[in-house]
Target: Sporulation protein YtxC
Amino acid sequence: MKQITFERKHEALSFCEYLLDYSRDIRLHWQQHKKWGLTINIEQASDVKELHSVLIQGFIHVFQIHKESAWLHEIIRDCYYYNDVDEVETIVDLCHTLLRDELEEEMVPQHKLSHGQYQTILETVFAEALKEEESVHFDSIIVFRMHTFYNDLIDFVGYALDEYKREEEYQSYVEHLREYMHLKPSNMDHLLIVQGPSFHFYDNNGNLFRQEELKRLTNGEPLYLFGLEKEEMNITPIIALAPEKISLYGDDPSDPKTITILNVFQEKVEFLPLKKFPFKRLSSQ
Model:
């Protein structure tokens, strides 16, 4: 039998609900203490190892619901000095996403707590507490065993803020391009683009634009306004050609270059499977 004590009733209730949702074979007995809070005596007919695993996940469940957001708010305000309510909430939401989502590694730089990895760290903390004591005080674990985790979380919030700033800069970049293209006269009716390490560009008759021609077209464009180099040959040709319509062919809608084109040109662009490209493709330029 295990004894788990919570100082706060709502945390104890969340813990019990989690256990009972997992299995009705678990038997719970409550004891109320004026000094210590609520003690839950836990019994289960099945093996101890399984019970320990369930208790660990129950602790993580309570931590994520009742502690995690409070800690993130505290760190964002007190360590990084963000005070705007809406901005803080946006950053907290981003932190939750990075902590839980298992995104592609190449899409977002990794942190030791990001993309679900922090789940393993929490499991280790709570597992060690359960292994060492028959009677476990949840708040004592939080106070005495999570110093390292809290410091890691401070560093993680800094990492999330870097991501937040990068996203702000990206959105500003996209918006500036949209405004510029909205005012720029169109130079062609229909541009066809084929995905690859670098985009290949075709006119409406299936003629491939060669590198020399693309460089000549982009020479007069004020690329410095958008932080683009003259050697950039994925979005600058589209800026120069300013097509009325864009057909982008490929099989990877998550390609960052493709996402930027979709974000900038919006209703002007359609993304189509590579097999629907209507002309013979040339593999080199």
Notes: The chain has two domains: 2-177, 186-276. The longest strand covers residues 27-33. DSSP finds ten helices and eight strands in the chain.
